[in-house]
Amino acid sequence: MEKIKMNVPVVEMDGDEMTRILWRMIKDELILPFVELKTEYYDLGLMERDRTNDEVTHEAAEAAKRLGVAVKCATITPNVQRMSEYKLKEMWKSPNGTIRSVLDGTVFRTPIVIDCVKPVVKNWQKPITIARHAYGDVYKAVELRTDEPGTAELVFTGASGKVSRQTIQKMFGAGVIQGMHNNEKSIESFARACFNYAIEMKQDLWFSTKDTISKVYDGAFKEIFERIYENEYKERFEALGIKYFYTLIDDAVARVIRSEGGFIWACKNYDGDVMSDMVSTAFGSLAMMTSVLVSPDGKFEYEAAHGTVTRHYYRHLNGEETSTNPMATIFAWSGALRKRGEMDGLADLCSYADKLEQACFDTLNSGVMTKDLAGLAEGIEPKVVNTGEFIGAIATRLTELLGA
Ligand code: NAP
Ligand code: MG
Predict the structure, then answer these.
(1) What predicted TM-score, i.e. pTM, was given to this entire model?
(2) How far is the CA of 315 from the centre of ligand 1 (A)?
(3) For an engineered disulfide with 29, which of 230, 328, 340, 395 has Cβ 3.0 to 4.6 Å away?
(4) Which residues line ligand 1 (CB under 6 A)?
C-alpha cells in the first residue's frame, strides 16, 4: 500500500512517563506504517522543559498557533516531589496552562463510548461534551478569614480614578470573605470557542449559570453569550438545524440526566471542573476521555484527558508488564490528523483517521481490552491484554480496514 500523504505538518508535543511510551508505540505501529507523517516535533518531556527553561513549551504553543493543529502527549506538572525526582531548576508551570494562555482556548472533553461499557445513566446514548471556561472566577480569587466583627466591602478603583464601593456585609463575628473576577474578553473568547465547536460538531450547545442569584456576574456571562449568538452565529446555527439554549444550572443538571446525550454543555470554570468529573465517571473512565483545546480563531490542540499514568510507568521501569489503555492518546492522534485532513482537503487522511478509530472500536467490541475496561465491561467475555498486545491487535485490524 502506498502511504497516505500530508502537506502541512501537525505540531507534535511529546510528553512524559507511561504516556511517552504509548506515544512511541502508537506512532510506530498505528501511524508510520500507513501515513507519510509530517510533524513539527517539540519535546515537552520534563527534562527538556527544564533544560530549555521551559522555552520549548512556549515554542510549541506558538507553533500550534502558526500551524493550526497540534497533538499533545500527557506531561508532568511539577510539584515538590518532582523537583527532587528530576532535580529541576524551577517548579515549571503546567504546560497545559501555558498552551491554554497562548491559544486563549476553551477545553472540550468528550467520552469515547463503546457498546460494552454502559453509562451509569441508562438513557445516555450519545456522548456529552463538557466545554469548560478555563479562566478566572474562584480559580483566581482572593480570600480572607477574619476572627473579629467588621465590615466587608467591595471596592473598585477605576483607571480613571473613579471609585465604587459597596458593603458586602456588616459582620458580627468571625467569618470568611472572597473576591473574584472575570474579563469580558475572556468570556467572549469562551463563547466563540463554544459556538464554533458546536458548528464543527453539528450539535446543540447548552449554556448554564446561576444568573437568578448572581444577577450581575453570571448575568454578564448570559448576556455576552446571547449577544455573540445573535450577532455572529444565529444564522449558521439555523442553517445547520442546531440550537443554542440557555438555562439555569439547576435546570440544566436535571435535563442532562434525563437526556439521551449528544450535545455540548458549556460551563463556567468551577461548574465545568465538577461536571466534567461527574460526566466522565458516569460514562466509564478517564482513560476513555478525549480533550481538545479550541482557540477562538480556530486552532486545535488534541490530547488525552488523563495524566502520565505514573504508577504504570514505575511498574514498566521495573520490567513488569502493564495494561495501560492507549485509547485517549490514539484518539488525540486521529483527531489531529482528521482535522489536518479537513483543513488541507486530504480525504485520504480523514478516512485513515476514521479507520484508525474504527479499528479501536472493533478491537474492543471483540472483547480484547486493557485491564481498566475489563472491569467495567458488560455482556461480553473480556480478554485482558497488555499494552503492547492491545496496540498490536488494533494494528492488525487497521491493516485489514485499510486493505494494506
Ligand atoms: P493519571 O496519570 O491520570 O493516573 C491516575 C490513575 O488513573 C492511574 O494510576 C490509573 O489507575 C488510572 N489511569 C489513568 N489513565 C489510564 C490509562 N490510560 N490506562 C489505565 N489506567 C489509567 O493521574 P495522576 O497519577 O494523578 O498524575 C500523573 C501525572 O500526570 C502527574 O505528574 C500530573 O501532573 C500529570 N497530569 C498531566 C495531565 C496532562 O498532561 N493533561 C493531566 C493530569 C495529570 P491504576 O493505577 O489504578 O491502574
Ligand atoms: Mg477537577
Answers:
(1) 0.89
(2) 14
(3) 395
(4) 74-77, 96, 286-287, 303, 306-311, 324-325, 372
Label residues 46-63 b or e (16+ Cβ within 10 Å = b). bebbbeeebebbbebbeb
DSSP per residue over 11-26, as a string? EEEE--HHHHHHHHHH
pLDDT (tens digit per residue) in 82-101: 999 999 999 999 898 889 88
Give the pLDDT of residue 280.
Answer: 86
Nearest C-alpha neighbor of 336 from the set 322, 356, 317: 356
Q: Please state, in angstroms and rounded to a whole number, the distance separating the CA atoms of residues 330 and 172.
A: 57
Per-residue pLDDT tens digits for 224-260: 999 999 999 999 999 999 999 999 999 999 999 999 9
**How far does CA 386 lie from the centroid of its chain?**
26
294 Cβ neighbours under 8 A, 6+ residues apart? 105, 106, 108, 193, 196, 197, 300
Mean pLDDT in residue range 28-57: 98
CA count, 13 A, side-chain hemisphere, 42? 26
Contact 220, 187 (CB under 8 A): yes
Q: Which sign does the torsion angle of CA 246, 185, 278, 361 carry?
A: positive
Mutate to test the pocket of ligand 1, among 23, 109, 290, 306 (most ligand atoms within 8 A of CB): 306
The ligand minimizing its distance to the Cα of 288 is 1
Question: Ligand 1, closest atom to CA 371?
Answer: 20
Ligand 1 atom nearest to 303, measured from its CA: 41
Rounded Cα distance between 376 and 289, Å, is 15
